[in-house]
Design brief:
Elements lengths: L10 E3 L20 E3 L19 E3 L5 H7 L1
Length: 71
């Protein structure tokens, strides 16, 4: 997926897209600090999201402690 080429991305707003899943390549966004996910249909996050150590997820049922357990 092309998303892995956005290595310097710091803010990603994917709100209100009715996403059901995120690609595993999301873990390549190691500089990602804020990820807005409200208005989606996600039940889980890919384990690779644990690689995004600076990440703060907003508008999501997923807590930072849950994300940390994925790494």
């Amino acid at each position: 997926d092309a998303i892995g080429y956005l290595a310097n991305l710091r803010v990603f707003d994917a709100s209100n897209n009715r996403l059901e899943a995120l690609p595993a390549e999301i873990g390549a966004l190691t500089k990602l600090e804020e990820f807005r996910l409200s208005g989606n249909l996600l039940c889980e996050l890919p384990k690779t999201i644990g690689n995004c150590s600076r990440l703060e997820v907003r508008g999501s049922p997923f807590s930072r402690s849950r994300i940390s357990k994925l790494s």
